[in-house]
Amino acid sequence: MPTYQEILATDLSTLTTAATKWDEMAGEFKEHETLYHDKVHTITLPASWVGESSRAANAMFDITLNEYKKAQTEAKAMASLLRDAHTQFVDLRKKVESERDAAIKDGMTVSSTGHVTFDTGKLDQSELSAYHHDPDYQRSAQERAGSWQSRIDNAVRSVCDADEGFEVALTEVVKDSVITDGTSNGFNGQAKGDIEQYEADEGKDIALRVDSGDATAHDYQELQRLFRDNSGDKVFSQTLLDNLGADGTLKLSNSLDSLAYYKDKKQSGQYLDIQKGLATTLSTATKDPDSAFYKHFRSEMQKAGTEEFKLDGLSKIPNERVRGYQSLVTLMQHGDGYSGQFLKDTADDIRHAEVSYTAKGNLDSVWALRDKFSGGDRGWFANDPLDGVLGIMSHDPATSTAYLDPAHSDNLKYLLHGRDWDTVVDHFATPPGGTTQGMAVTAEDGDVRKGFGAALEAATTGNAPGAYHPVGHHSAAQASILQQTIDTLNADDHAQKLPKNLTEPLAHIMTSYTPDTHQTFAKSDSHYDIPYNSNGTVWEGKDGAHLALAPDHLTKLMRGIADDPEAFGHLYGAEQKYSHDVLAALPQDSGEKTVHDRIVESSRAMGSYDGVRADIIFDERFKKTQWAADFNHGLGTSLSTALMFNPVSDLSPVGDLATKTVDVWAYESNKEHTAEANLAATDANAKSYDAGQRDVDHMVRMWGQSRGHDIDSDYTKYFLHAGQDQYDLSRNDSLRYLRADR
C-alpha cells in the first residue's frame, strides 16, 4: 500500500512505457500466429496417416494456434489495464497535491510524510504572541490542522484503494478462465482491459458469500473498498448489477440489513456503509434510461419487485417474507443522486404492482406485513415502497413536480383519492361463531404518507421539503398540483381533518402561497372570484402562476392545518407580515381610496384566518389554553424568522421587513394573544374571540403612525373602522363555512 511519500515520488510514466511493451508483445504474438498457421497448422499430412494419432495431432495444432490468439488478447488487456491505472493514478495524485497545496495556503505545513501541523512560522510577532497566550486560538488552529490532515489522508486512501483495485485486475487478467480449451493454465482468451470490470467480478463473488453466510471479515472490508474506490464509476456499477441481477442485488441488500440491524449490530456501521456504496452503485448504473442495461435491469426488477425474500430479524413473525420493491426502496434510501426518470419509473412500477395485486381480488395490500414499521425500531425499512420512493423523490423538486402534475398523469389523484394506505396487519378477524383465523385487518402505519407529503411539498414549492418556504414565483404545474390537492381533499371531506402526516407539509406549502391566500380572502381581485364549493383555477401573470380557490375550500384546509397549532401560527404570522408589507409599500402620496382598499383587503384576510382560530374554541377535542399557547409560539417564531417568510421583491409589495413599525406591531400582537391564552374557554369567549380584531387595530394604527398620523387621529380612525367591519365579516364567513350550527 503506497505511502504519501511514495505517491508523490513514484514515476508513473513507467506504466505507459510498460503498456507500450505489452502492445508490442501482442504484435509479436500476432506474427508468431501467422507464421505458425502458414508453416505448421496448414501442412498437408500424408494421406496414409489416419486414425487416432492423426486426429490427436490436428487437435494439438488447433490448441497451439488458439493459444497464440489468446496470448494476444491477454497482452492487449494487460496494456489497457496499465494505461487505465496510469490515468487513475495521475488524477488521484493531483488530488493529493491539491489538498497539500490548499493546506499550505491555509497556514499549515505539510511534512514529507504527509503530516499536517499549524505553521506558526507564518505569524508575525503580535500574532505569535496571541497564539501562545490564547488557548482558544491554539485549539482552533489544531482543529484546522486536523481537518486538513483528514482531507490529505482521504486523498491518500483513494490512491491506495485504486492501487488495490489494480492489483485485483493484474491477478485475474493472467488466469486462464476456460478450462475446456485443451490447456490447464494457458493464456486468458477472456481477458478484459478495464480494472473496474475485474473489481465488479470480485464484488459479485463476495456478494454470493455474504448471501450464503460464508463471507469473512476481509470480504466485508474489500466490499467497502470496492464501493469506495468505484463510487460514481458507470462501468463498475453496471457490470456489478448486471452480474448480480435484480434478485442478487436485493438479496445482498437484505443480507446487509440483517447483519446491521439483527445479527451483528456491533459492526452495523460497516454494513450500512456498504449499503450506502451499493445504493450509490445503483444510482450510478441507472443514470441513462435509454441504455440497454437500464431496460434489462428494470425488466428484471419488475419481476423481482413482487417476489418474496428473506430478511432476518425484521419481523417477529416466523418465516414472514418481504417483497422485492420493499427491499429495493430500503436500499435506495441509503443513497442519493438518482435520475428523475429512474425515480418516476420505479414509482410507476410499484403502483402497477399494487394495482395488479388488488385487481386479482386480494383485499389486503401487497405490501401488508404483521408489525409496525415506524420509529426507531423498524422505521428504516420501507414497508410502503411507493411512499418510500416518493420521499426519495422529494429531494428532486423538479421530478416531484413532473410526477404529480395532473396535466400529465393521474398519480396525484391516485395518491389522494384512490390508494389504500393500509399497509400493516393490525389483527386477524375471527369468523362469526368460529375459532379459525379469518381475513387480515390492515391499518395505516405510523409514518404513513410521510414520503408523499415531502414530495407534495417539493412539487408545489420547487424547494426541498422540511421548512417554511419563502414566497416566490410558482410554475403553472406547481400551482395546479396544489389546487387539485386542496379541491380533492374538500371533495372527500378530508380538508378539515387532514390525512395523517399531511398537516405539516401542507402548512409549509401554504406559507409559500401567502399572496394567493391573502387575495382569496380579500375578495377584491376578479382572478380570485371562485364560487362557493367550486374547484379552483390557476392563472398566470408576469410574475408566474397564481392559485385561486373557493374561500370555503381554503378555509377548511386552514382548519385542518389548525389541528397543529404551531403550524397554523406560522401561517397566521405569514399573513400578518404580508398584510404589513402591503401597507408599507403604499406610496406616500396614495389616495384615500387606495389606502382604504388595501386596509379592507388585509382586514378581510386576517379576519378569515381568525375565524379558523375561533373555531378551535368550539371544538371539544382541544385543550384551549394549550392550543393557544402553541399557536402563540408558532406565531412568535414566524414573526422573528426572516428566512421563513422572505417575499420576492417583484412578486409582492415588500419594503424593509426589519422596520420599527412591524417590530412594535408584532410585540403588541403577541401580548394580546398571550393574554387571550389565559382566558377561560367559555362559549362567550369563543364568540368574542377578539385578539385577532386587535391585530387589525394594531396594524392600522402602526401604519398610520409610520405615515405621521397619531394613532387616535380622525384619519387613522376612519381606516380603523373600515378594517374592523371587514375583519368581522370575514371572521363570520369562516365560521359559517366550518360549522352550520353556529
Q: Could you describe the 3D structure shown?
A:
With 742 residues, the protein is mostly helical. 64% of the residues lie in helices and 4% in strands. It is built from 28 helices and eight strands. The strands form four sheets. It has a two-stranded antiparallel ribbon. Strand 1 and strand 2 form a beta hairpin. Helix 23 (592-618) packs parallel to helix 28 (714-738) and helix 25 runs antiparallel to helix 27 (691-706). The longest helix is centred in the first third of the chain and has 54 residues, at 52-105. Mean pLDDT is 87; it is low at 642-659.
Summary tags:
742 residues, mainly alpha, two-stranded antiparallel ribbon, 8 strands, 4% strand
Calculate the mean pLDDT score and round it.
87
**What order do the strands of the largest sheet run in, or round the barrel if closed?**
1-2
Which structural class do the helices and strands define? mainly alpha
What portion of residues is helical? 55-70%
Could you say which overall geometry the principal axes of the C-alpha atoms support?
elongated
- Number of E-type strands: 8
Radius of gyration of CA atoms, rounded to a whole number: 35 Å
Instruction: Quote the beta fraction.
Output: under 5%
Low-confidence stretches: 642-659
Tally of contiguous helical segments? 28
Distance between the termini: 80 Å
Largest sheet: 2 strands, antiparallel
